């Protein structure tokens, strides 16, 4: 519904423009206006329309005869009744002020007191007592009730290397620029800068200069943009959250052993490390003063034999550095777990047998000691 209405409006506006082209001398005006195709602003704020124009040499004299610039709104209703629309709805039209110096061909204007109902196509119009003309291409003005998210650029973050995080919000109303900031500031400095874009519009950036550390990895940082509004005491707020990814060398490397170490058992050593990007792991084994490299993999598994006894070291490395785990001593006993259990069983049996023999031997002694009836 909204779409079809807006395309109907577009069509109506095209008709309007077409009819204005047809109606005589206007197309011969030699007027050429340049302004952005689209401009966005927010309800309750204002909007600066950057605007420059050229006019043919023959017409240049009109600039001396105090011309008046009006911005003609191309809604469906204007097509039906321009005059009455303008009169009846004056309060509902945005307040327009031309800021540019027309003699310098600068038609930069500001629309104040904007509301979302003002979203429309607007045409530049210049009037003098001798000459009236309307530009045939429109500036599409989009006034919304909410703010778009600020635009954030985050370069690759490497531990210890100073970087700038930039957050940019448009400043459609330069007299009331947004306040753009970063939170938390990560121990860095935030500088604000207003810049002019290629199309003449302005934006405000907050640049956070800081030195990333691995403590900042996966931290959430917000860019907050606060837009003051003249309609309301309450400013509009928008924000964008970024999750930082800091690249750093391995900070911690450790080995975990799964399973108990017995002859013939399968033992898996797993190497873990804290690194970004994730580290590649290499295994070393120190045995009887000899060191050998075992494998390049996350885990190292073996079926325990006595020659697996030794000190295992895992080295984690990524493109920023390497770090070794502490030595993990693995001692493979000369016996399997079942062997151990059998021996244990035999030992227990032996102890049990000894206990019985002991009791048998001790029993009479004990009954001897107990049987005498105490004498009074
Ligand atoms: C206006 O807003 C729309 C939607 O947020 C966006 O796609 C467009 O690039 C904006 N135009 C300008 C000129 O900022
Ligand atoms: C006006 O004309 C000059 C010279 O031809 C050109 O450099 C300039 O870009 C034109 N400006 C506009 C707004 O068309
Ligand atoms: C404009 O409105 C007035 C009164 O409100 C009415 O008399 C006049 O006919 C209207 N003109 C057109 C062109 O509709
Ligand atoms: C046009 O006028 C505006 C408002 O006075 C000014 O900010 C801008 O710099 C001018 N542009 C040029 C190209 O002179
Ligand atoms: C702004 O618009 C409101 C209605 O939307 C109107 O009552 C008010 O007078 C306008 N303010 C100015 C300064 O034009
Ligand atoms: C241009 O428009 C103004 C205001 O609408 C009007 O007073 C003037 O007579 C018009 N001039 C020409 C040449 O049409
Ligand atoms: C107008 O702006 C709003 C909010 O920024 C956006 O959602 C919408 O797509 C824009 N419309 C156009 C036609 O750019
Ligand atoms: C960060 O921005 C500042 C200016 O705000 C600049 O001096 C510095 O060189 C920039 N640093 C990097 C790493 O881009
Ligand atoms: C140990 O692993 C090997 C090969 O993966 C397998 O054949 C064997 O049965 C495993 N032994 C035990 C005791 O789990
Ligand atoms: C050695 O690493 C490869 C993959 O890198 C893996 O498939 C293999 O199981 C590893 N060998 C041992 C003994 O863990
Ligand atoms: C231990 O000895 C066996 C065979 O004797 C051999 O296959 C295996 O690679 C040796 N393990 C190590 C860690 O040297
Ligand atoms: C880790 O230990 C191995 C074996 O001792 C050694 O070759 C390697 O250089 C060590 N790496 C680091 C980063 O200390």
Automatic annotation (TrEMBL):
Membrane topology value: Single-pass membrane protein
Compartmental location: Membrane
Taxonomic lineage: Eukaryota, Metazoa, Chordata, Craniata, Vertebrata
Nucleotide-binding listed as a keyword: no
Residue spans crossing the bilayer: 335-358
Signal peptide: 1-27
Keywords: Disulfide bond, Membrane, Signal, Transmembrane, Transmembrane helix
Gene Ontology cellular-component terms listed: membrane
UniProt organism field: Carassius auratus (Goldfish)
Domain Ig-like, residue spans: 150-182, 250-331
InterPro entries, sorted: CD80_C2-set (IPR013162), Ig-like_dom (IPR007110), Ig-like_dom_sf (IPR036179), Ig-like_fold (IPR013783), Ig_sub (IPR003599)
Protein name per the record: Myelin-associated glycoprotein-like isoform X2
């Amino acid at each position: 519904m909204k779409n079809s209405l807006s395309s109907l409006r577009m069509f109506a506006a095209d008709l309007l423009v077409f009819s204005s082209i047809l109606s005589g001398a206007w197309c011969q005006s030699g007027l050429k206006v340049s302004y952005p195709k689209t401009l966005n602003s927010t309800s309750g704020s204002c909007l600066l329309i950057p605007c420059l124009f050229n006019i043919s040499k023959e017409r240049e004299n009109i600039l001396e005869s105090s011309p008046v610039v009006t911005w003609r709104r191309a809604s469906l209703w204007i097509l039906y009744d321009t005059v009455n629309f303008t009169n009846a709805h004056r309060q509902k039209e945005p307040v327009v002020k031309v800021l540019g110096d027309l003699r310098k061909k600068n038609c930069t204007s500001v629309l104040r007191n904007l509301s979302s109902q003002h979203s429309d196509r607007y045409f530049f119009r210049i009037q003098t007592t001798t000459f009236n003309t309307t530009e045939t291409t429109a500036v599409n003005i989009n006034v919304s009730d909410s703010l778009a998210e600020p635009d954030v650029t985050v370069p690759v973050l490497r531990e210890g290397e100073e970087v700038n995080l930039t957050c940019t919000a448009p400043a459609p109303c330069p007299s009331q620029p947004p306040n753009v900031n970063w939170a938390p500031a990560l121990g860095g400095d935030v500088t604000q800068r207003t810049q002019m874009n290629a199309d003449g519009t302005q934006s405000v950036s907050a640049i956070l200069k800081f030195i990333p550390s691995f403590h900042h990895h996966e931290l959430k940082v917000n860019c907050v943009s606060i837009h003051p509004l003249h309609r309301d005491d309450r400013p509009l707020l928008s924000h964008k959250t970024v999750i930082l990814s800091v690249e750093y060398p391995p900070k911690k490397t450790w080995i975990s052993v799964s399973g108990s170490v017995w002859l013939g058992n399968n033992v898996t050593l797993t190497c873990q490390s804290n690194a970004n990007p994730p580290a590649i792991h290499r295994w070393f084994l120190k045995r009887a003063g000899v060191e050998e490299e075992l494998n390049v993999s996350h885990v190292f598994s073996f079926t325990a034999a006595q020659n697996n006894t030794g000190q295992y070291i895992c080295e984690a490395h990524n493109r920023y550095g390497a770090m070794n785990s502490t030595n993990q001593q693995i001692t493979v006993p000369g016996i399997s777990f079942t062997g151990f259990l059998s021996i244990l069983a035999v030992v227990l049996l032996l102890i049990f047998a000894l206990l019985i023999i002991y009791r048998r031997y001790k029993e009479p002694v004990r009954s001897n000691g107990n049987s005498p009836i105490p004498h009074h």
